[in-house]
From TrEMBL:
This is BPHL hydrolase. The gene is Bphl. Keywords: Hydrolase. InterPro entries: AB_hydrolase_1 (IPR000073), AB_hydrolase_fold (IPR029058). Transmembrane segments: none annotated. The keyword Nucleotide-binding does not apply. PANTHER family: VALACYCLOVIR HYDROLASE. Residues 26-139 form the AB hydrolase-1 domain. GO terms for molecular function: serine hydrolase activity.
Length: 227
C-alpha cells in the first residue's frame, strides 16, 4: 500500500503526517529532537506489516513539514506535543491507538500514555528519559554546535531545514531541555509514570551517546508491569 502525505489542522496549527496500511491496530510513530516522520521512520513506514497495522508518522509542530510555526521550546513543550499527537490521531478518527516513540518522541509518548490512558492501546519507547541530570546537561551542551555533528546525522537534517534553521533550532532545544534540570530531581515527567496503565515495552541502546542507560532503568522501574 502507498504512503499518503497530508496536513490537518490541530490546536491552531497545520500538522503534517504520513499514513500507510489498513490494519485494525493503529500506531503513531513519534520522532526525536529535530526529527520528523520521514527522517526518523522511513523504514517503518515502508516495512511495517500493513495488513496488521495502520501506521501514522507525524511531524511535531515546528519540525519537518509542520512549519510554520517555527519550533519553540516553552516549559511545557513536551506536554504540548503530547496533546498535539493525541488530538491529531483523534482528528484522523482513530478511537484507540498505540504509540512508538523515540528520544523526545519517547518522552512525548510517556506523557500521552499517562494523560490519556483510555486512548492508548500499547506503548513502546526507546532512548527516552523522564528527568534531566547534570550529566545530561554536559552531554546536551556537547551537541549544541551542529557543525561538530557527524556528517551522517547532520546531512538529512540540513537538507530538511537548511543550515540556519537547523543550527538555531538545535541550540534552542538544548536551552529548552536544560531548563528541566532546574526542577526538583530534574523532573520532566517522573510523577506521571505510575499513571501509565497500558502494556509498555522499553528499549535502550547500550551505546546510546545521548541518553545514559539509568534513564531506561528508571522508567522501567516506575511503569508497573513494563518490560
Amino acid at each position: 500500500t502507498s504512503i499518503t502525505s497530508a496536513k490537518i489542522q490541530v490546536n491552531g496549527v497545520h500538522l503534517h503526517y504520513q499514513q500507510t496500511g489498513e490494519g485494525s491496530h493503529a500506531v503513531l510513530l513519534l520522532p526525536g529532537m529535530l526529527g520528523c516522520g520521514q527522517t526518523d521512520f522511513g523504514p517503518q513506514l515502508n516495512s511495517m506489516n500493513k495488513q496488521l497495522f495502520t501506521v501514522v508518522a507525524w511531524d511535531p509542530r515546528g519540525y519537518g513539514k509542520s512549519i510554520p510555526p517555527s519550533r519553540d521550546f516553552p516549559p511545557d513543550f513536551f506536554e504540548r506535543d503530547a496533546k498535539d499527537a493525541v488530538d491529531l490521531m483523534q482528528a484522523l478518527k482513530f478511537k484507540k491507538f498505540s504509540l512508538l516513540g523515540w528520544s523526545d518522541g519517547g518522552i512525548t509518548a510517556l506523557i500521552a500514555a499517562a494523560r490519556y490512558p483510555n486512548l492508548i492501546h500499547k506503548l513502546v519507547v526507546w532512548g527516552a528519559n523522564a528527568s534531566v541530570t547534570q550529566e545530561d546537561l554536559r552531554i546536551y551542551n556537547g551537541i549544541r554546535d551542529v557543525s561538530k555533528w557527524s556528517e551522517k546525522v547532520k546531512k538529512p537534517l540540513e537538507e530538511l531545514y537548511g543550515h540556519k534553521y537547523f543550527a538555531e533550532t538545535c541550540e534552542a532545544w538544548v536551552d529548552g531541555i536544560s531548563h528541566f534540570a532546574e526542577n526538583s530531581d530534574g523532573n520532566i515527567c517522573q510523577q506521571l509514570l505510575p499513571d501509565i496503565k497500558c502494556p509498555t515495552f522499553i528499549i535502550h541502546g547500550e551505546k546510546d551517546p545521548l541518553v545514559p542507560q539509568a534513564h531506561a532503568e528508571y522508567i522501567h522501574k516506575h511503569i508497573k508491569g513494563s518490560r
